[in-house]
Design brief:
Blueprint lengths: L1 H26 L4 H30 L12 H4 L5
Protein name: DUF2630 domain-containing protein
Organism: Streptomyces shenzhenensis
Pfam family, one: DUF2630
Length: 82
């Protein structure tokens, strides 16, 4: 469960970073190219974190070891809708 809390804390941090970046872009306060690149990186990492959390929860639910869940490549989990 501690691992799940750490993943959720990281997700919360990234969501806040994403919100801040989107606001800065909308207000024209930052370099668009750099911020769009960073926003894309955040979105991919968020997809991976959510996927890892889903894997851990599914493993727990079915009596498996959640610590065996692994981060999958962003190409595999990007834009996943569960």
């Amino acid at each position: 469960m501690e691992q799940d809390r750490q993943i959720l804390a990281r997700i919360t941090e990234m969501v806040e970073d994403e919100r801040t970046l989107r606001e800065s872009l909308a207000a024209g306060e930052t370099d668009g190219t750099t911020e769009r690149r960073r926003l894309g990186e955040l979105e991919r990492e968020l997809d991976q974190c959510w996927d890892l959390l889903r894997q851990r929860r599914a493993r727990s639910e079915f009596g498996e070891n959640p610590d065996e869940a692994r981060v999958r490549p962003s190409s595999q989990v990007e834009d996943y809708r569960g």
